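Narrative summary of target 7.
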Amino acid sequence: MSDATLESLAAKVEELEQRLTTREDELDVKKLQYLYGYLIDKCMYDQVVDLFTEDGEVRFFGGVYKGKAGVRRLYVDRFRKSFTHDNNGPIDGFLLDHPQIQAIVDIEPDGVTAKLRGRSTMQAGRHVDYCDPSNPMTANPRQWWEGGLYENTYKKGSDGKWRIHVLNYFPHWHADFDKGWAYTQEQYVPFPKVTYPEDPIGPDELMEEHWLWPTHKLLPFHMKHPITGEEMVAERWEGDIRREQEKATKG
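Modeled conformation, tokenized:
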């Protein structure tokens, strides 16, 4: 076998090893995100925090929670104490399903950074027999829908394990179960206006660009179009149907 053939085979093996590593990394990142969904479902917030890098962050509902301290402030100090009476696990009468779907994973050329775009369509609520009148967050029975997108970043550590670096969850819409999304009020969930430490469970900083249904915009893609190589940018309709209706009524 000639030297040229050996070099060609060695190059092919190296290429295949790289492709295999990339595919394994894609599966590991997807598995990590799916595990996040299962842990959130069952309100296992301590385990959720452990999925993040030390300098990780969460971008959620118009706020940015920075570092492990900020991540823990959101999941433990806010969610756990509000939803499950500070119990690290599911409690009777509280539903919080987060199915993780439509995941697209891209491994960056450095081999230690990954991006994911995914979706969750959530069902949540509190059963009428398990309300706690002493807590405003749990005083009344409620059931609602929520839909949102993820544009996340992950880092591969020196131990070879992937961790969440930036969890950017953008909930686009909410709806009461009985009325549906056609009747959702604006600001269904109020955005934070005060940061930590003034608000003990608030974000470290506020985000400028955020919205909720019925406002409808595109959360930018981390990837370019696979065929054209162009940025995937949606056109923004500048009309105002409500204003046009008001003009027609007055006319």
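The chain has four helices and eight strands.
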